[in-house]
Every structure is written in structure tokens, then in C-alpha cells.
Specification:
- 32% of the residues lie in helices and 33% in strands.
- Helix 4 links the parallel strand 9 and strand 10.
Length: 276
């Protein structure tokens, strides 16, 4: 059992949890994730390790309420126990000194972007950031990114903060104005696809994180199968990070939509039961 030491609200339907998991905290590296099972018979679902405190034995995770299991996690409080936490899983991020790195986060993808950005900064890279959400109240970790970024750009769908529009609008501008050695993008699949399409045209190496569909986290279930350069790979064991220019995003989107329909049905059932 793993104790929730602290819980905080970051934005509407987005919470952060600090959990006592000493073994995971000692071994985790930037880019890796854990699989949670809240109770006996519960679903297994993945969340990225946002930070770790090895001495204290704590890991930090961020979760957005979007499905049945994340809705159940959102109901837990400080002091509550989680049945199982498996990890760290996945391949660590490839951290090198590239030069000027542009990191792009969309929605809750801002959370897994933070630990990798920190590691890239510590490796001597110059960081620029584009963070995009629906509206101002959905932003979180702004201060953290400001401390490690030379320049930071905000975008919102409604224009309530920063530039109204998409992260790709700013990306187009920066491609013309800045010399960028590498791009890292984490967020909705459609966003990562759009980013990769733009950077491919100007030959900027781009890394994306394919973590939206995972179940067991060990490659056994096949739910996170994706096509990379025409070859079948599993995001949980071969990734979650891949070369964005080699990802077959169309196939990934079709698979994601299939699972999202099932998850939406499950969430509706959970909400109905919760209201009774």
C-alpha cells in the first residue's frame, strides 16, 4: 500500500499527489511513469512521474479527471492509501546537450514535460517553451517553467492569457525567428502531429511522448501499440518517447478514438452511480 502524503489542486479537474513510494523514488528518471491500481479489482492506468524526492521517498504525479479511474483517484484525500504502484516504467528521456531546445506542452501534457525540461536545462541546454491550454484557469506550473526557460510563450483557445490560438501558431513564428536545435512536444496526439509536421518541413529533430493509451505498462496487452517508421512498437516499453517524424499519427489517432469511446461510456456510468 502507498500513502498519499499530500494532495493539491492545480487547476479545474487537475490535481497533484505526493505519494510515499521509496523504491520508485530512488530509481526513477526523467520521462518515466508508473502504473497505479487504486484498489483490489481496480483498473490499471499510467501517470508520469513529475518529480521525485529520493531522500524522502516521495514521488509526485499529476492527474486530470477524464475517465473512470482518474475520477476515482480525484476522490482520494491526503492520508488515503493506493493499493499498487508499479514502476518506474518506460525508457528514460534521452538527455543530451543539444543547444537551444524548444519544449511544447499542451493541456495536462505540461506535467510530464516539466521533469524532462528540468533535466535538459541541467544538461546545459538553453530552454524556450510554448505552453497551451483552453483558458487561463487551466494553466499550472507557470512559475516552474519561467525559472528554467529563456523565453516562454502562452497560448489559450479563448485568448484569456497570452496569444489566442494554437501552440503551432507560435511554433511557426519561432521557426522563422530562432535557430532551434531540437523540439520536444507532449500533449494531445493531434497537437503532437501538427508540431511534428511543421518541424519535419525544416528538418528540426523532434521528440514526442506517446502515453495516451496504456493498460498494463509491460507490453503484454498491446493497447499502446504504435507504428514507428513502419514498425510496430509498444509505447510502454519502447517509449514513451519517439521520433515525431517517424510516428504514424493517423493510425495512432484511430486507435485512440476507439479506446476513448469505451472510456467515455465507463465514465458516464461512474458519474451516474456517484450521483445516486
Amino acid at each position: 500500500m502507498y500513502k498519499i502524503v499530500k494532495k493539491e489542486k492545480l487547476a479545474p479537474d487537475i490535481q497533484r499527489f505526493f505519494i510515499a513510494a521509496p523504491e520508485v523514488a530512488r530509481a526513477a528518471k526523467a520521462g518515466q511513469f508508473v502504473i497505479l491500481r487504486l484498489f483490489e479489482g481496480g483498473e490499471r492506468f499510467p501517470l508520469t512521474i513529475v518529480s521525485r524526492e529520493a531522500k524522502e521517498g516521495l514521488i509526485e504525479i499529476v492527474s486530470q479527471r477524464v475517465g473512470k479511474s482518474t475520477a476515482e483517484l480525484a476522490l482520494l484525500k491526503t492520508g488515503d492509501l493506493i493499493k499498487d504502484i508499479s514502476g518506474p516504467l518506460g525508457q528514460p528521456s534521452e538527455i543530451k546537450r543539444y543547444g537551444r531546445v524548444l519544449v511544447i506542452g499542451g493541456g495536462v501534457g505540461i506535467a510530464p514535460l516539466l521533469p524532462i525540461t528540468r533535466a535538459l536545462k541541467e544538461a546545459g541546454n538553453e530552454i524556450m517553451a510554448i505552453l497551451g491550454v483552453r483558458s487561463k484557469e487551466m494553466f499550472f506550473f507557470e512559475d516552474e517553467f519561467k525559472t528554467i526557460s529563456r523565453k516562454i510563450y502562452f497560448t489559450t483557445d479563448d485568448g484569456s492569457l497570452g496569444r489566442k490560438g494554437l501552440v503551432t501558431d507560435v511554433l511557426k513564428m519561432l521557426i522563422d525567428e530562432e535557430e532551434i536545435q531540437r523540439v520536444l512536444a507532449i500533449g494531445p496526439v493531434v497537437m503532437m502531429k501538427a508540431v511534428s509536421n511543421l518541424t519535419k518541413k525544416v528538418n528540426i529533430p523532434t521528440t514526442v511522448s506517446l502515453n495516451p493509451i496504456m493498460v498494463d505498462g509491460t507490453g503484454m496487452c498491446g493497447a499502446c501499440r504504435c507504428l514507428i517508421n513502419g514498425k510496430s512498437r509498444f509505447a510502454c516499453i519502447h517509449g514513451p518517447e519517439f521520433d515525431g517524424h517517424q510516428v504514424d499519427f493517423n493510425t495512432l489517432l484511430r486507435r485512440q478514438n476507439m479506446f476513448l469511446k469505451e472510456e467515455k461510456t465507463a465514465l458516464e456510468g461512474f458519474k451516474k452511480k456517484d450521483s445516486q
